[in-house]
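User: What would this chain look like folded?
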Amino acid sequence: MYKTTDILNRVYAILNITDDKEFCGIYEIKPNTLSTWRTRNTIPYELLLKISKEQNISLDSIFFGKMRINDDNLQLRYYTDVAAAAGYGAINSKLEYTEIVISKKFACEALGLPPLTRLDIIKVIGDSMEPFIHNGDVIAVDVSKNKLELVKNGDIVVINLDGEIYCKKLLKQPFVNEIVLSSMNSFYKDIVVNIDQINCAEIIGVVCKAISIKTFENAIIKYE
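Assistant: Here's the prediction, encoded as structure tokens.
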């Protein structure tokens, strides 16, 4: 497991500071709070995420030092400011992400993720895909399946349609040149996409796992 002292040392090097006093001053942290973090070997994920975004470095650089991406590792691009709507569509202006590299073994055992090379992690808003995906969950998206011919009938996809990002079940209608974006919650009506819209739409990828955001972030923090 990570050591808070090691993480702080890496953060101090990134910020070009030398001691706890400077760090506490920058982020308005009480010295006794920082002391408690060291004693309990814990540090708020939100703070590390903030530092990662401010300094434009990956979280794995903060937690472990930069890891080399190879056949044993999984690269996660965590879009903290992007949401896919399980409902009526979400408009996103920010496409910033934090890069996290973890071992495929850990990804499988702790998060139930498939042994792929790269996945995008995106937050879902809305309840139209319940009970499979709940409001506020994050979804792991296989971005290698980003073309209609690579998507199986009935796959749950993330799709950009006219600037709005949806998370829906995709149903192919080959004889009428259209697709249907369907919800699992019967309260929501299907979205019919005609051939012209299909040609302009962007399939971001196929959803392979839904995870509660708390489970995801706790697992990343505890990653060894």
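Residues 65 and 101 are 10 Å apart (CA to CA). If you want, I can go into more detail on any region.
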